[in-house]
Amino acid sequence: MRWLFYPGFFSSSPVHVALVIGGISALVCGVVGTFTVQRGQSYAGHALADLSVTGGSASFLASISPLWGFAGMGVLAAGTMDMIGVRNQRGRDLATGIVRGAGLGLAALFLYWDTQRSSTTGASITILFGSMFTIGNGSIPLVAAFAVPALLIIGLLFRPLLLSSVSADLAAARGVRVRLAGLACLVAIALAVSLAAMTVGAILSTALLVGPAAIALKVTSTPGSATITAAAIGVAATWLGVLLAYDSFTWPPSHDGWPVSFFIVALIFVAFLVAQPIGRRRIRQVEG
After folding, report:
1. What is the pTM of this model?
2. 277 preceded by cis ω (within 30°)?
3. Which CATH number fits domain 13-287: 1.10.150.20, 3.40.309.10, 1.10.3470.10, 3.40.50.1000?
4. What percent of the chain has pLDDT above 70?
């Protein structure tokens, strides 16, 4: 099996940490991403991912784990977006754009300050594109701590979120507090993209949030099966990405290794292309 697993893969501590943290992040993104796509909030997820750059860059200045910054800024932005525009799609998009623009302005300032500090030379690369093999063992409990509330939100509000995704008016008539459920979903999305930012970086975190969910919704027929499938696809792509990145240290041109984030996003993209004909065939079967 040396052609697949380069020597030292199973004994490498950085690989173990990358597999655990990457697996947890991908699992959360798959579960939360299913509702992100169903509720038409992919743009909100993209905005929260961009805004996590602000928190991540600020955390480097404060010399704390980037995850605190990613998650803190994400949750704050989710609450702000909910507060200033939730009544209709146009209002949500407007609120998202305003908050995103303000946050990215701060991110530019913080990243500039980060690059001026010799102790954070790689801050920009780590925040924007991730660096899974440099994450320490001590980050695992913190990642798990942020994963639990995201999964609990989806688990407790599974049916209300699903109903409000189909029709907000029908959900309200059934007694669902639509606005509160929407805010909770935004918080779950913020936590998910924060975890993804730890693995593939803030710029690419939306791919891990939306990609597996979009694939799963094309090839499955029920929300429950889509959620499980999305989580499985995300974890598989992440673990295979870690393996390929480890093996790539022997590849040209520089023999310094290729980014894990590249492999994960590339694998998700290929899987999405493969899912297209499967999805079309399933639709024809349903219509027929």
Report:
1. 0.85
2. no
3. 1.10.3470.10
4. 88
